[in-house]
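The instructor's notes for this session suggest beginning with a concrete chain rather than abstract definitions. Hand out the sequence below and ask the class to guess, before any prediction is shown, which regions might be ordered.
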Amino acid sequence: MNSSNKLIFSIKDEMYLTIGLLNFILGLSCLLLIHYNTFFLGNGGGSFGNLFSIILIGRGITKITLYFKNPDKKIEFYSNSINLPKQKIELDIEEIKGVYKISSLFFLGDSPNIKRYNLLAKIFFFLLLPIFIFLQLLIHIFFIIYYRKLYVYNMLVIVPDDEKKIVSIQIPIQAEDKEEKLSSYFKNFLNIDISELKTKLFIPKKGY
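After discussion, reveal the predicted structure:
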């Protein structure tokens, strides 16, 4: 890293907790559905379905545990770059071509790879809209209990010019001083007012 690249501030990667909750809730829901189907309808759930559910639950518990026990899961904001040390991602500010506010409704992964969906995939997502709403409702209920206040979140997605790796930030940040620093950082270093970004359901097509 360039010695002139000064650390401005850092935040905990709250999306790690969200993805953990999503995996846990989805896995538990699938497992309950399989056993309901087995005990009440007399149909076997299948070993694959059980295994898939258990893997999701285990992955969710692992992520939730790491979030609370591992303080290194953070996003660092430097004068010249935005970094995720654990994922070994470093986005040069000069190479950032797009910053989008994406609804949490269909934002289901923590992969650093950019995901765009064609029309068929989007139609499929909308057909499953009740499931997505159910999952997000449970996650938001958890956050309301955990933070003791109403908390509706979105994702701030930062896309570099080469689109090889992206950085996703769950907003708003719970610590008010960090939220102010984040807003100030984007205004000063990227000339972007986060509060004026319109919420989109999906990451726009390349070039938009």
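Then share the key points. The radius of gyration is 19 Å. The mean pLDDT is 83.
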